[in-house]
Design goal:
The protein has 204 residues and is α+β, with helices and mostly antiparallel strands. It has two domains: 52 residues, no CATH class; 109 residues, Lambda Exonuclease, Chain A, CATH 3.90.320.10. Strands 1-2-3-4-5 form a five-stranded mixed β-sheet. A hairpin with a 2-residue loop joins β1 and β2.
Amino acid sequence: DFYQLVKKKEKISQNILLDLLEKNWQKEGYTSKKYEIEMMKRGKNYLTSYFEKEFNPNIKTLVVEQPFTASISLDGRMIKIGGKIDRIDDLGKGKIEIIDYKTGRIPTQRQVDTDLQLSTYALAASEIDEPPFGRNVEDIKLSLYYFDSQQKITTTRTTDQLLEKKKEILGWVTKIETSDFRCSGNMLCNNCEYKMFCNVYNTQ
């Protein structure tokens, strides 16, 4: 909601951002009221720091919470992958930055450089023809933004690296298809590391 206001060039402020948090707050899923209050306080601290240190109204945000379904082909087989990208910024001259928001422990640069989720986003941005996608691989920046530390870690991919990730994805899909595992399609799916390759999750 906040970046929709930014796109519309409406008046924005830190208070508006915090009001949106309260408006969109989900009360379900907490073990106690005390824990919910703690999480709300933490969320407000995250957003306050984000607004003060990271938010730049001059950056053009193309989309937020952008769902995607991409078809990638490898060795004569077509695989569908899907997901949702938190934010995509326009960097000018055909370049974009894909940003995924995170909490928790910060990974190393090496881990980010090989992260499968970010690679999947790069595949989507280069394989899907419709805007805001349809980009050359070299024009795609990939970033993880960590609210706990207010740090952003950025990486890129090459065409060869994405080819290797296609092979890795095919391997995971094959394992899922040949295993006894059956997706239940419940709320736990949101935290599953294989949800981008799951037909049940991506058709809900």
